[in-house]
Amino acid sequence: MMNAAPKWNRVSDAEMVRRLERPAGKIHVVLDTDTYNEIDDQFALSYMVRSVEKLEVKAIYAAPFSNHHSTGPADGMERSYQEILKVLTLLEAEELKEVTYRGSTGYLPNEDEPVISDAAKDLAERAMQYSAGNPLYVISIGAITNIASAILLNPEITGRIVVVWLGGHALGWPDTEEFNMVQDIAAARIVFGCGVPLVQLPCMGVVSEFATTGPELEYHLKGRNRLCDYLLEHVLDEVTLLDAGRFWSRVIWDVTAVAWLLDGDFMQDYLIHSPIPEYDGKYAFDNTRHFIRYVYHVNRDRLIGDLFEKLRR
Fold this sequence. Notes:
Elements: H1 13-19, E1 27-33, H2 40-50, E2 55-62, H3 73-90, E3 100-101, H4 118-126, E4 136-140, H5 145-153, E5 161-166, H6 179-183, H7 185-193, E6 198-201, E7 211-213, H8 214-221, H9 226-241, E8 249-251, H10 255-259, E9 267-273, E10 276-277, E11 283-284, E12 291-298, H11 300-311
Parallel strand pairs: 1-2, 1-4, 2-3, 4-5, 5-6, 6-12
Antiparallel strand pairs: 7-8, 9-12, 10-11
């Protein structure tokens, strides 16, 4: 247990810009996911595993969540863990079950204390095998509790990883009360403030444009394989549960966090000074803070074509 906030190691702006470049060649990745939360994590997990030409998956972490699919963060994490295993079976990627870890059963109590979990401990140890010149890429598509906890457990990993997080809303959005961010503001503040190289994919106002519809999913996925049929059925079940009506579309935005790492012209981004997620649901700004990379547009049609092609393999 930590009693005082760590002193983060800072790097020069030039070094941070270098670390935030899109990676060339094949890279090592881990995924942190609240897979049972909705429909999009299953797509993102599958897309990552099927992108073998670019991504070598080293570990998968179950993230906590709380909504109508769970009784609380601990239950959400456990349901996500079981859902990861189910999707891996459909992907015929049984070997990845051995490196799938349960994550936090609760959110950070404050900005100084990690929540100990198998996921946080694995990342804190695994990242030490990497370096600034050869980092481990951490894809996070849920509350970022596990990642922040790993950083608090071992602050040295901030120089050995790059975090790609789908979280928060666009800078011009009226608030930051997005599902992943609002569940654990303390964790978000750590990740935005510690100096780790960070790529932010904001939800409303940016990756909210990455949506699909029932007819599109049926045309491209139905009957292709067991995985495709499961993904389609899962979407239709969720639509029925939420009583979406006759005409509906669904965002599958978690896919975009995986796509940022791939060799495709799938989105546009630029550098900004790291904003500060505040506890009042707003961003604060300080132009003396380090840079992060901020995604501002998704090439929806190009990305969804690549997604469907890989899911049908």
